[in-house]
Structure formats: structure tokens, C-alpha cells
Amino acid sequence: MSGRVVSVMLGSSSKFKQGLAAQAMPDPVHTVSFNLHPKFVSPDIDEKAVRRADPQEMVLAIAQAKMDKLLELLDPKNGDSLGNPDLVIAADEIILFGDTVREKPEDEKQAKEFLQSYGKEKVPAICLNGVVVANVKSGVRSFGVDKSVQYFECVPDDVVQKLIDKGDVMYCAGGFTVEDPLLEPYLGKREGEIEAIQGMPIQLTKQLILERSQEIIKQAS
After folding, report:
1. At a CB cut-off of 8 Å and minimum separation 6, what does 27 contact?
2. Do 67 and 90 meet the contact criterion of CB atoms below 8 Å apart?
3. Which entry of 46, 92, 158, 168 is annotated as an active-site residue?
4. CB neighbours of residue 45 within 10 Å
């Protein structure tokens, strides 16, 4: 008897999240295994329209809004061109720096301001990730927020400019990429998963996938 494979789709066009999502697939449970769907779908929403006073509530609200859009896009009435996954993941990340919420830089000037502030102010970047996993057929969701912390040393101006010229920082919350070799010498201590700081908390995502797979696991047992 062959085992059941749970197909999990990533709801993001972010190359950073795509590179991490495979790591978030849980180990097999009984005869059930988990596979990252080869396709992805991007929920193009106006994130700036989703605001909350509490940063943790806001990052989760943005992830939930993305999930609303994803389930709409994956509705069977829209056809099966996306591959009919069992589960879909929506995620969002914001950076809390002092009492200020930072999302993706709006332009190079803001990216420079972000990068120059890390280390100089001796304040860590608090990375908040909201993650939602939903059963595509039922729409039932599991969700949570992960918090991780990254400290910095002062980043020299020439390194700041090189990072901006490369461009990746323009697509990252807080305007930094901890995996970039240019920035690595200026990273201080870290609390939490490096993958969470990159935008995909592995353990939380695994937990949510397993929660939403319980009915499938029971049926396969």
C-alpha cells in the first residue's frame, strides 16, 4: 500500500522564502509524507492597507489577508492550473527597530537609512513572522507568530552601498539580508532561527503544517 503525500504550496513569489520552504516540510508521519509543491502562487495584496497598533497583530493580519487571497486564487472554480495542493502557506515578516515598524524599504534612500542605523544605535532588529497554513479544500487555518532577534555591528558606508547596489535588500523587511557575505562580518549575536530572520520560521511552519494535516493523517492510518 503506497503512502499518502500531502502537497504543500508556498504562497509567495519571494526567492528567499522559496529557498527555505523545503526545509519546513515535516518528517513523515506513519504512511504520510510531505512534499513542497513545485509551483507557487503569489497573493498580490496591498500590505500597507493592513495596519494594526500592535506589531505582532499586524504581521499576522497581513499573513491572514494574504491567505484570503490565496484561497480565492486556489478555489477549484478557477480551474486546476495551479496543481490542487492540499495545504498552502502564507507568511509575512516585519522588523521592529526600537518602537518603529520596518517593512521593505520604499527606495534606496530608506534602505541606506535602515542599514546605517543598525549597530550605530546598539538596538537589535526584532524580526516578527506571521505564518498561516490552510487546508485548501476546507479553508480551515492554523496560524502563529515567531519572534527572533538580530544584533549588528556598525556597517561601513561602502558596504551599505554595495548591498544596495546588489538589490536584494530592497525586497527584504528591514532592508537587510543576513545570508549576504557582505553583511556577515557585521552581524552580532542572534536569538532564534536564522531562517526566521530570513523570513521563514522553520519550526513554527512545520508545527502549523502538522496541525492542518491531522485529518489527512487519521484518514491514512
Report:
1. none
2. yes
3. 92
4. 17
DSSP 127: E
Query: Tell me: the pLDDT tens digits for 64-109?
Result: 999 999 999 998 777 566 778 999 999 999 999 999 999 999 999 9
Farthest-apart Cα atoms in the chain, separation: 61
Locate cell 506589531: which residue?
55
Say how far apart CA 29 and CA 51 lie, in whole Å.
38
Give me the numbers of helices (H) and strands (E) for the chain, helices first please.
6, 7
Residues 6+ apart with CB under 8 A from 16: 171, 172, 177, 198, 199, 200
- The DSSP string of 71-113 is HHHT-GGG-STT---SEEEEEEEEEEETTEEE-S-SSHHHHHH
Give pLDDT tens digits for 16-71: 888 899 999 999 998 999 999 999 999 999 999 999 999 999 999 999 999 999 99
Q: Is 158 a catalytic residue?
A: no
How far is Cα 13 from Cα 26, in angstroms, rounded to an integer? 22
**C-alpha distance from residue 76 to each of 12, 71, 73, 138, 210 (Å):** 19, 10, 9, 12, 23
Q: Cα-Cα-Cα-Cα dihedral of 20, 64, 205, 139, to 10°?
A: -110
Predicted TM-score (pTM) of this structure: 0.94
